[in-house]
Design brief:
The relative contact order is 0.11. β5 and β6 form a beta hairpin. The chain has 17 helices and 15 strands. About 0% of the residues have low confidence. It is elongated, with a radius of gyration of 27 Å. The longest helix is centred in the C-terminal third of the chain and has 23 residues. The chain is an alpha/beta fold and about 500 residues long. The strands form five sheets. The chain has a four-stranded parallel sheet with strand order 4-3-9-10, sandwiched between helices. A four-stranded antiparallel sheet has the order 5-6-7-8. The structure holds zinc ion (ZN). The site of zinc ion (ZN) has 4 residues, from loops.
Length: about 500
């Protein structure tokens, strides 16, 4: 089958056919987490979005190198409270080695990603492990004349850059508008222009994460790590750079400026941005009191949550919307996602276990597979894939209750449809229903009840009933063992 993957390129502001630089190979870079706190719902969206892209590119036969960085030297531009690196601050408060804090949050991030069935990237470079490369990159920008040293720090000269290259081309801004809305912030007096951003920042004495450099003991600016690690692992020009829409400005804008200044040309061919998740219409944030970590979702341990939401429900919820549209979280929306997912999985189970193939199908199946490929090719239209799986579920349900018949070939086609699109590409795990605590509890209760009835029957010497229960459970795949303390069961 011929595939024509088109993706929305934020830089061109339009969908474009995807053509990799090196045929058969794709280099993609996605801005990863800042590891100074637990992963929250906002982390799930880019992770799942670019996981879908990663899975689909591999499915199409590309060899993909997927780089997702770990920001572990702090969001220097975003640290409003004290100007101190957030990892360092946390370490000082908890008397921990900074790298211990980084590792703790990184482990927890990985656990959450694994629960969401997000595949690990090919390379996960740490900003703190690439200080030498970042220093070398700053030297290139200085040599090209687009940066200046001031009081031990190095700043990017936005005005000078803008004279020859449009600063703001990705986010559609221009520096006059930006200047009129920029507030005075920390370090302003060291800068030639308020829009200039730090490439290297001199560390203040209380700052415990710092490295030697030609300019001062200090640390690299946040925007720098992505330019440096992206090109280190993917080459001076690479295919795809992704991230949340909130990173478009200033982070990605600064990345473009840095690449042009250091290399003389841009590094990225396709910029992709996922939209944000809001909670009851509001942006998520600690200050709004609606900050919910992924773990709190999984266990239902936040006052705003009416119940636990298994990771697959969160994943399915994210995929029900196109990645470029906003998603609003509410208990109702997640409960609806849970029901929808259960319906699709139940249909798949019926397909596996309960439909007896007929000589021929009494209905003509549309080409669901092709429809799903077309949806994926159209800028990863996952809601359309899910709608198609729903339609196929209805066909399965009709065949299960006997109102229609399906041939062995059609049953096989439907199975392949679910295997490819629901499990392989949307990345839904099939065993989630059993992991849902409510379902598991009901299931265990029902089996125990049957075994209690069996032991009552035995006590009453009603061997017919007791044998019937044992034999039927064995037939269904249970292993029943009689012990001194009653019957024990397991699933073979
Ligand atoms: Zn980044």
């Amino acid at each position: 089958m011929e595939h024509n993957l088109t993706i929305y390129n934020s830089l061109a502001r339009t969908k474009q056919p995807f053509k990799p630089i090196h045929p058969g190979h794709v280099g993609m870079y996605v801005c990863g987490p800042t590891v100074y706190g637990d992963a929250h719902l906002g982390h799930a969206r880019p992770a799942v979005t670019f996981d879908i892209l990663f899975r689909y590119l591999k499915h199409l036969g590309y060899k993909v190198r997927y780089v997702r960085n770990i920001t572990d030297v702090g969001h220097l531009e975003h640290d409003a409270d004290s100007g101190e690196d957030k990892v360092a601050k946390k370490a000082r408060l908890e008397q921990l080695e900074p790298m211990e804090v980084v590792q703790m949050y990184l482990n927890s991030y990985h656990r959450d990603m694994e629960a969401l069935n997000v595949l690990p990237p090919s390379i996960e470079p740490h900003a703190s492990g690439h200080i030498i490369e970042q220093i070398e990159y700053i030297k290139k920008i200085l040599d090209a004349g687009f940066a200046y040293e001031s009081c031990g720090s190095v700043y990017f000269d936005v005005r000078k850059y803008n004279a020859t290259h449009p600063y703001g081309k990705l986010s559609g801004r221009n520096i006059d508008d930006l200047l009129s809305t920029t507030r005075e912030l920390d370090g302003q007096d060291e800068k030639r222009c308020p829009l200039d951003f730090a490439l290297w920042k001199k560390a203040s004495p209380e700052h415990i994460m710092h490295w030697p450099s030609p300019w001062s003991e200090g640390f690299p600016g946040w925007h720098l790590e992505c330019s440096v690690m992206g090109t280190k692992y993917l080459g001076e020009t690479f295919d795809i750079h992704g991230g949340g829409m909130d990173l478009m400005f200033p982070h990605h804008e600064c990345e473009i400026a840095q690449s042009v200044a250091a290399q003389g040309h841009e590094a990225v061919r396709y910029w992709m941005h996922n939209n944000m998740i809001t909670i009851n219409g509001k942006k998520m944030g600690k200050s709004y009191g609606n900050f919910i970590t992924l773990e709190q979702f999984f266990y239902g341990s936040h006052p705003a949550l009416e119940q636990p939401y298994p990771p697959m429900v969160i994943r399915f919820f994210v995929l029900q919307a196109h990645y470029r549209s906003t998603v609003d979280f509410s208990n109702e929306a997640l409960q609806a996602a849970e029901k929808a997912l259960q319906k699709i999985l139940a249909a798949y189970q019926r397909l596996q276990q309960r439909i007896k193939p007929s000589e021929k199908s009494s209905v003509e199946l549309p080409d669901y597979e092709n429809r799903c490929y077309e949806a994926m090719d159209d800028d990863l239209n996952t809601p359309m894939v899910i709608a198609t799986l729903f339609e196929a579920s209805k066909v399965i349900n009709d065949a299960t209750d006997g109102s229609t018949t399906l041939s062995a070939d059609d049953i096989e086609r439907l199975r392949r449809l679910f295997d490819t699109f629901l499990f392989e590409l949307l990345g839904i795990r099939n065993n989630e229903a059993a992991e849902d605590p409510k379902t598991e509890k009901a299931f265990e209760g029902a089996v125990n009840l049957l075994l209690d009835i069996r032991s009552s029957a035995k006590a009453a010497k009603d061997w017919a009933t007791s044998d019937l229960i044992r034999d039927k459970l064995t037939e269904l795949g249970f292993e029943i063992k009689d012990t001194k303390n009653g019957a024990e069961w397991s699933i073979r």
